[in-house]
User: Fold this.
Amino acid sequence: MIRKIFSTIGLALVLSAVSFTQTSTAATAADTNNSTAASNVAMPTKIGIINIQGAIVSTNEGQRDFDSLQKKFEPKQVELKSANDEIDGLKKQLAAAEGKLSDEEKNKRVQAIEGKQKILQRNFEDAQNEFQQQQNEVAQRIGTKLMEVLDKYAKANNLAMVIDVSSQGSPVLWASQAVDITKPVIDAYNAQSGVPAPAAAKPGATGAAAVPSAPRPNPTGTTVPPRRPATTAPPATTGTPK
Assistant:
């Protein structure tokens, strides 16, 4: 009886060993097949370049929102220009009256002009800072969504890397137009956003949304061209954007 029990146990152990061996062999074969399949999948090797800032302002949404921002600041632009013209007029009057005014009157006019210049400079800086902030908010909002589109495009087109060339400090010295993905990414963004293209392009427009401008006074009272506020590009992502 005891011999029969041990024989049954021995048979069970043998069957278990055979089953384990078969399972291990099957698992090894499966791993091998998976490794072979993985090796047959082409690894991404292509590189693309994109002007991310240009893409942001050139999307239909970007053109719409930056144009709206420009219209919003047009009254302030007119106000600043009017104040600057007034100062220019006062300076011309002062120059024309040179030698005809008493020192007291001349100093009074000079102080009045300087006071108006300080107010103009302060108002311009306030308007410029406000515009810059709102422009960056629009750029950041669109840029975040654009990065999601870029991520999908890069994966769908087997890209291993995308380099932003919108900055003057870009390390790219030369690149073929064939690797520039700016336009196709813009097209993909427009298709996803559903925002229609602008009804009509403004004369002389280059595709990028214009920004409001205003005279920037300097200490001499003359006006110089305004600095164009730079859009803030969204942070780069690796893999799927969060």
Remarks:
- The longest strand covers residues 159-164.
- Residues 56 and 62 are 6 Å apart (CA to CA).
